[in-house]
Amino acid sequence: MGKGDAVVVGGGLAGTLAAGALLGHVDTVTLVERDRYPEQPAFRKGVPQGRHLHVFLSGGRRALEELFPGLNGELEAAGAHRLEAPRDVITKAPNGWQRRFHEGRHATTSCTRALFDATVRARVLAEAEGSGTRVEVLQGTEAIGLLGGADRVTGVRARARDAGRTGRELPADLVVDASGRGSRAPKWLAELGAPAPREEVVDAGIGYCTQMFRPAEPLDMVMVIQPRPDCPRGAAWSPVEDGNWLLTLSGVRGQHPPTESSEVLGFVKSLGEPTLYEHLRTCEPVSPPYGFRDTSNRRRHYDAPGSLPEGFLAVSDAACTFNPIYGQGMAVAALSGLALRRCLAESGLRPGFAATAQRAVARASDTAWLTAVGADRPYAADADTTPPGAAERLRSWYFGRLADRAAIDPVVGAAFRDVTYLAAGPSRLLSAGVALRTVLLPRARGLTDPPLRVES
Fold first, then answer.
1. N vs C: which end of the chain shows fewer Cβ within 10 Å?
2. Residue 383 confidence (pLDDT)
3. Spatial distance between the Cα atoms of 195 and 421, rounded to a whole number of angstroms
């Protein structure tokens, strides 16, 4: 008796990791990708954020290592940078600079999205050999609808994107939607008579731009400047492969960063941090700045009871997407892939699998959703945003105090980083030692000047 067949819609990082999670648990995986993959790592249209700064948080690194042992090392061998926080990452929060010391708990990966995608894709396709699962990649092909009915999805309708626009049906026991922010699954499900999932939206109206530079003398640290009420602008400066660094600038409505090279330094100067400004003046631009504006947090509650037909699963941005400025998306893709793999290992594609897996995938997104929404809520416009409930208002008050104390308090800071790096759930912030220090100690002030040296 066969294990079943799967179709994955979207061949980006989330889709590739979902396909990797399915290996050995189904007979075939058909990966449907609108683009054509470049032969070498390169930016492509199908990844609209591809030119922007990407970091892979420690929670994602751990999930990736469990899915594909040694893959983090392959990324570093290909040119990615392994960075430890807070030793290698200095951060200016709204209350000042955070302390810089060796904690040894969290490592992140920094490289271009093109390198990350190509390395992961090569590993997944290599793993397919000998896995017992046949993988077919349909490049230059778009999904245009679902097969089945309101109670069960039985496959995907697809067509080639060439001049002939040849259509075909792809039967499947499981369809995984990994098509990202622009997912059309709610429309496709409605066409089958299934209910549309309830949506939550929190939109701070943040826009950002990214420009690549080559420093004459690289810094020994990543710099992150968070927005604050009196200056709702931010910046991040991080190394990628080939001796280049990426500068990402952000701002809320009316404060969006420029997309003209001649205006970038002026925006950086407005942040009031001369260390970064003076350093950038010595760097050579390698690319123009590229802008991005689609930054709303949006959650589709496919995990709610009765919201999902059998045979359909939405993962990563197709189900829950975050403001990309927080760098959570790739880690959540890995955590979602790991959740899918564990569900398959427990039961295979038995009846009820889709609902069970969707709940597990939703749990993998919970921490990122809570932290992103908590950070964006103060800047969100009422017209574009689901109003907060009493519980969320209380969480926001507590999280604000905790984030301030984390800048200088190693105990609270360790818990804060465990959660924001997606290595622990939000309950970590409610342990007795953390809660007492957060509520009873005075609201903390960070350092006045950037910590250019690591504390001994």
1. N
2. 46
3. 34
Cβ proximity of 301 and 201 under 8 Å: no
Cis before 86 (ω within 30): yes
Residue carrying structure tokens 């907060």: 388
- The pLDDT mean for the chain works out to 93
Taking residues 380-386, what's their average pLDDT?
61
**pLDDT at position 258, please?**
94
Q: How far apart are CA 70 and CA 240, in angstroms?
A: 20
Position of tokens 């690591």? Answer: 454
Residues 20/125, Cβ–Cβ less than 8 Å: no
Tens digit of each residue's pLDDT (9 = 90 or more) over 204-256: 889 999 999 999 999 999 999 998 888 899 999 999 999 999 999 999 888 99
Amino acid at 106: H
**To which residue do tokens 């001796």 refer?**
243
The pTM (predicted TM-score) of the whole model is: 0.94
291 burial type by CB count under 10 A (0-12 exposed, 13-18 middle, 19+ buried): middle
Note whether 215 and 290 are within 8 A (CB): no
Buried b / exposed e over 182-191, threshold 16 CB at 10 Å, is ebbbbebbee
* 9-22 tens-digit pLDDT: 999 999 999 999 99
Residues 47 and 316: beta-carbon distance below 8 Å: no
Nearest of 31, 12, 34 to residue 23 by alpha carbon: 31
